[in-house]
Every structure is written in structure tokens, then in C-alpha cells.
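User: Can you help me understand a structure? I only have the sequence.
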Amino acid sequence: MTRLNFIKSAIIIASTVFFLSSCEDKEPKDIMVENETALTQTSFADETSGKSGVTFVTNGAWTSTITEGTTKSTKSGTTSWVSITPDHGNSAGTYTIIISLEPNTTGKARSATITISCNGMDITIAVTQKGVSANAEDDDADEREMLIAFYKSTNGDNWLRKDNWCSDKPISEWYGIRTYNWHRNESVRNRVESIELPNNNLTGSAHLANLQSLYHLNILDGNKIESLTIDNCGNELPDENMNNYNSVFQHSSKYSQSNLKSLKITNTNAFVYVDGSFSADSVIISDCNLSAQEYIYFDPHPAAVSTSVVVGTLIVSNCTMGYFYANKSTIGNIIIDNCTFLADEHGNNAYIYVGNRTQVNNCRGLRFIYSSRECSDLIVTNTICNDIQCKQ
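Assistant: Let's start by predicting it. Here is the structure, written out as C-alpha cells:
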């Protein structure tokens, strides 16, 4: 009997411990969220609400604060761009807060943290609002940033037309910009293929870099840009045949007079063509990799009598190309250094044709060099060339 009573007592004690333990484990929290996935919310720039409401249960009154980046709001439940409704509760119960957003016109992503507090216990909701709209999600983000920098450096606020520039709209809707997904691949972002901004009051210095699909550029015609730098542009095109007709810089006879202090073009696979009214104190073209059909051309169009191409110093270095042509232009000095010239499939090209004082140094692959100037104005050193002709 004693043994039986001992066993019963042990069972009662164990049951009591289990019951107390179970009750302790199930002790209600002061604040609980129904769906924890709602604690992380991301919206696009043009959206004015969070992705969903956030429902929670409290055991008492609750308050809220919002931290924007690293700055806590001074007013409960709001910042300059994000707010919640309701922003507090006076008693225990079930609540659903709605997150409201202002459109993001900064062009950059921004974030905020919403903190709900009840009896010393907190839950946090992370809110991110992207710098672009859903339609602009397919744009290349680096190219968007480059265009914004270009806008600022050319005094974009004073442009005659600047529709949608620096906005959350797709960059294809920015005035003068055309984009295309050359690869027709969802994993590849849309890239800039053309910038067309003639007669639009562009001023200052322009710098364009890493626009890999750029093959048409018109920003000098009717504008007052003082200097232009083009780096690592025009290097990717969808069709091998098109690579032979891709110009990263062209100033044609149709354009009005441009007056640059400097033009610098580097790291490109696309040719340079100038046959319109153009002047620059200096032009530097370096590290270009052109095909046998592509070239560097600085000469006024023969049919446009009033056009002139005037350059103080023109330097071409470390380039591969089909040919270089600058015969009737007015150029103080031409320096062509460490370049490789390519003949096409018919054995043509691979030449230099100039009418200005010219130095050719350390070049390869040349079929001939022709100068319409006196021989004293042509200096050729350490260069492989089949034939050199000049005016005797």
C-alpha cells in the first residue's frame, strides 16, 4: 500500500511540474504578430502604401516610433515620407496598421524602421522604398546614375526640355533618351543606345562613361558644352554586322558649329566621325579597338562649303583601326602613336591620309601614309609602312 501511495504521489508531482512548465511556456506575450512576413516591406518609388497591413495583438496599450535611416522621428507614427494609421492604441486588443508612403522622387532607395512597443516589448517593421518605379526596374541602375550626373554637369535645370529627367520614370521616357535590351534577356537590364539633345541649352562639361550600348550621340548641336569626355562607351552591340557602323561620337555636316575646349574619347570599340563645323583646342583619342572597316575621321564634308574642322592638337594613341583621315581639316599638330592598322578582306584600308603637320610613332600594319603637306611636316619613326608619300 505504501509503495502504491508513493507511485501516486510521484505521478501527481510529475504532472504538476509538467502543467506548470506548460503554462509557463504558453504564457502570452505582450505583443504578437499574426504574419511575420509582413515585418519586411518593399515598395516602388511611385507606390503610396506598403505591400500589406500589419496585424498584431497586444496585452495592453501600445505606442509607435519611426526611424528614417538613422534619424528617429519627433512625432509618433510619422516621418517626412512614411506614416502609419493608427499610430497608437490605448488598450489591449487586435490592431491592423496601414503604412502610407510619399512618392520617392529622389532617384535613390530609402528606408525606415517602424517600432511598435507594448509593456517594454517591441516589434519592428522594416520599410524600403526603391528609387525607381516598377516600370523602371528593368533599367540599368549604373546607367541611370550616369545620366543623372550628366544632367547635373550640363546644368540640366536650365535645359529647355528635361521631361522626366532624374525622375522614377523609366529612362526611355526621359526626353532625348532611347534604350533597348540588346540581348532580349530578362537578366540583362535595358541600356542607353541613343542620346539626342540638340538645341537644348546644354552648357558646362559633359562626362559620359560606361554606356556600353551607346551608338548615337548628339549633344553638341546647338548647345554650348565646353568639354566632353566619353569613356568606355559603345562597346556592346547585338549584331556583328552592326559593329562596323557604330559611332560613339559623330558631328555631322547637318549640325551647327560646336566649340569645345577639349574632347577626350577612351576605351571604345566604336569609330569617331567628324565632317561638320567643329572646333576644339585639343582632341585625345586613346585605347580604342576598331575593326578594319572602322576609322577615325576629321575632315569637312566636301559638299558642305561653309563647314570647317579646326583642332589645335589631335592625339591618337594605343588604338587599332582601319584608317585615319584628316586631309582638308585645319589641325595644328597630329600625333599618332602606338597604333595598329588593319586591312579589310579585300586588302584595302590600313592607311593614314593627312594634310596637316603629323607625327607617326611606333605604328604597325600600315599599307601607306600620304600627306598633302611638305615632307618636312611629316615625321615617321619606328613605324612599319609599305609606302610613304608627301609633297616634295
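Now, to help you interpret it: The first helix runs from residue 2 to 25. The two ends are 136 Å apart (CA to CA). Let me know which part you'd like to focus on.
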